[in-house]
Write a sequence for this structure.
């Protein structure tokens, strides 16, 4: 499926900035994205199987090390303890990785507990309005909470744990404990969540699979980790993970173990859950959608094409929708049967 080779960054306008301030997403940070670009050298990061991860571990001059350790552990404390450093004195920055290939060119910060060597991550990225809308919609409409902060050009995101989708399909599906039916059910629900809120480009490396042992078996939760393609592309199928060839393995599982009636049942179940989350957070959602409807997040040709494709899908006119925010709002109301 053809997609835009590189999506541009969209700035945060005043309306969105006011919204972020109202929901406590804006905070003054001691370290910025541009600060982390001052590395002097780097080397490829190899995983425990000897494969190149496409991340580079970067090196900084000695004059930055103390400043970065203090500033980045404080940012981690903002994510975890609302900035209370009394719980963070035993933490230190073990490694800073940089990805040249991601659209957002993120930095990944590895934080280690010196008492037990346990570690965690968070990400420092360049601010992009599309990604912020994607993160907020994930927070409001999905079963997953995600914490993030914005300070000017800098976006901080917490780490989303799980097995990358491509790794899961390549290796974990061979595990004796693997349950084909449960991953198929979860993928159908994930597919529906992405389509309802128009989150695109959910190829297997843009989501993770969170595995939870149950008393008799395993439960799976598929979670998006890349939100750059929120309401940008002009083709309906880009918002449906089932159509990406990278997801063929799990799509085949769905065909193997489910009937069309079962798939429709799970899709309906997920829409009901999304509607309940919408109803619980209507005030916050409507403030966010007002920002989206007054923002410029795509091109005229993409807006026109998506409007036409969704008209055919819903058999209802989208002609009054002039931007991606208005398209998303009408599409969501039709998908969830919301009457206003």
């Amino acid at each position: 499926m053809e997609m835009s080779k590189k999506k541009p960054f969209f700035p945060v306008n005043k309306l969105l900035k006011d919204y972020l301030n109202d929901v406590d997403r804006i905070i003054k940070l001691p370290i910025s994205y541009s600060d982390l670009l001052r590395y002097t050298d780097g080397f490829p990061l190899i995983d425990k199987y000897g494969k190149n991860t496409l991340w580079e571990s970067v090196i900084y001059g000695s004059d930055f090390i103390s400043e970065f350790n203090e500033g980045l552990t404080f940012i981690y404390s903002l994510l975890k303890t609302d900035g209370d450093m009394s719980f963070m004195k035993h933490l230190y920055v073990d490694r800073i990785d940089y990805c040249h290939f991601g659209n957002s060119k993120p930095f990944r910060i590895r934080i280690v507990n010196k008492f037990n060597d346990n570690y965690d991550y968070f990400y420092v990225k360049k601010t992009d309005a599309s990604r912020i809308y994607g993160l907020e919609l994930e927070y409001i409409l999905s079963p997953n909470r995600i914490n993030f902060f914005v300070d000017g050009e800098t976006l901080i995101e917490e780490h989303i744990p799980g097995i990358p989708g491509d790794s899961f399909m390549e290796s974990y599906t061979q595990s004796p404990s693997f349950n084909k039916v449960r991953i198929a059910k979860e993928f159908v629900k994930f597919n529906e969540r992405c389509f309802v809120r128009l989150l695109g480009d959910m190829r297997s490396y843009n989501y993770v699979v969170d595995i939870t042992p149950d008393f008799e078996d395993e439960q799976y939760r598929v979670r998006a980790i890349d939100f750059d393609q929120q309401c940008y592309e002009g083709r309906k199928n880009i918002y449906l993970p089932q159509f990406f060839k990278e997801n063929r393995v799990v799509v085949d599982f769905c065909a193997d173990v489910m009937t069309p009636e079962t798939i429709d049942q799970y899709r309906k179940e997920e829409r009901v859950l999304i509607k309940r989350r919408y109803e619980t957070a209507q005030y916050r959602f409507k403030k966010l959608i007002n920002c989206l409807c007054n923002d410029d997040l795509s091109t005229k040709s993409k807006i026109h094409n998506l409007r036409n494709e969704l008209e055919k899908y819903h058999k209802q006119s989208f002609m009054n929708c002039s931007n991606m925010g208005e398209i998303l709002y009408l599409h969501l109301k039709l998908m969830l049967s919301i009457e206003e």
